[in-house]
Design brief:
alpha/beta; eight-stranded mixed beta sheet; 8 helices; 8 strands
């Protein structure tokens, strides 16, 4: 009998050796992918403070302008925190014996990037045009202040600043209004929540409900890992505790590209203030709201009509 040859193509079926090699490669790829993901998430957790607080941006830790450069009289004040950091600050006071003394003080809580020197043109306007005392300080790790910024640290900074104000002969007898922009708004809300008796008003410019709720707006791909945020700033919770007698002005940019405009709307809705005022600048962005027509008129009107000087 002649031999019958198998003409089927055995080559179409991988050998067991080939399958083993492919499996090992696949397993190695998965392990590598998981390792990269773990490293990325670990880095996100470990370095998020540098992302949330870019204190060194644009040389913010080097040169800090002084009010003197703007022709303003001021005192350079060092505030010492409970954990040993030193906060550099500027205090601008009007003559309390003057007949036109307003007896109101703006506590400026600065936005994130840069340093307090960058905000001095606004300080000049508050002091010279609106005629209010002004206190502005550098958060820890910003400007020439010592330390490293964090939520816990910035709250300790705020505690030390409020203590300074309460012990100041002139400021303690003045109606103090917290004016916070962006991250400064979160600090302002914290202060008004913890020290309501020390505050006579609150002005918020483009601030947020919380850091974890901002992350998906800026980085949609990070939405699944917002649980890794250890910098929280739960402003929506703090807002609920601010007494109704503290007036609040909300200044919102309609085209804010950093903080969802809906966050400011929600904070407004949450506020229990009996004198809460909403102002929206529909074409404004996060950093240019202060340049829009009506902004400073709205600011001045709030300060005049809603904030009563102590003793009157």
């Amino acid at each position: 009998m002649s031999e019958v040859k198998d003409t089927s193509d055995r080559g179409i079926f991988p050998s067991s050796t080939f399958i083993s090699i492919v499996w090992k490669l696949a397993k190695t790829s998965v392990i590598a992918g998981v390792s990269v993901a773990v490293i990325a998430l670990t880095a996100l957790y470990a370095f998020q403070s540098k992302i949330v607080y870019p204190s060194g941006l644009n040389g913010g830790r080097k040169n800090v302008s002084t009010p003197g450069e703007y022709g303003l009289p001021y005192q350079s004040i060092d505030i010492h925190t409970e954990d040993g950091e030193t906060l550099k600050s500027y205090l601008l006071l009007h003559d309390s014996t003057s007949p036109d003394y307003a007896n109101k003080t703006i506590l400026v809580l600065s936005p994130n990037a840069g340093n307090i020197g960058n905000f001095l043109p606004v300080v000049k306007y508050l002091f010279e045009v609106l005629n209010y005392n002004v206190f502005i300080y550098s958060y820890r790790g910003y400007g020439h202040s010592t330390g490293t910024p964090s939520e816990k640290g910035l709250k300790l900074d705020a505690d030390a600043v409020v203590k300074y104000i309460e012990n100041s002969e002139q400021l303690s007898k003045s109606s103090v209004v917290c004016y916070g922009r962006s991250i400064g708004g979160a600090v302002a809300i914290y202060i008004a929540s913890k020290y309501p008796s020390a505050i006579s008003g609150l002005i918020l410019d483009n601030t947020f409900l919380s850091i974890p709720k901002v992350v998906p707006y800026l980085f949609p791909f990070l939405r699944p890992v917002t649980f890794l945020c250890h910098e929280i700033w739960p402003s929506e919770e703090y807002m609920k505790t601010i007494p109704a007698e503290i007036p609040v002005l909300f200044l919102s940019a309609g085209k804010d590209e950093i903080v969802p405009p809906s966050h400011m709307e929600s904070l407004y809705d949450i506020s229990k203030s009996s004198a809460k005022i909403w102002k929206k600048y529909k074409n404004a962005h996060h950093n240019d709201t202060i340049t829009f027509p009506g902004y400073w008129e709205d600011f001045a009107e709030f300060m005049t009509e809603q904030v009563t000087p102590i003793g009157k």
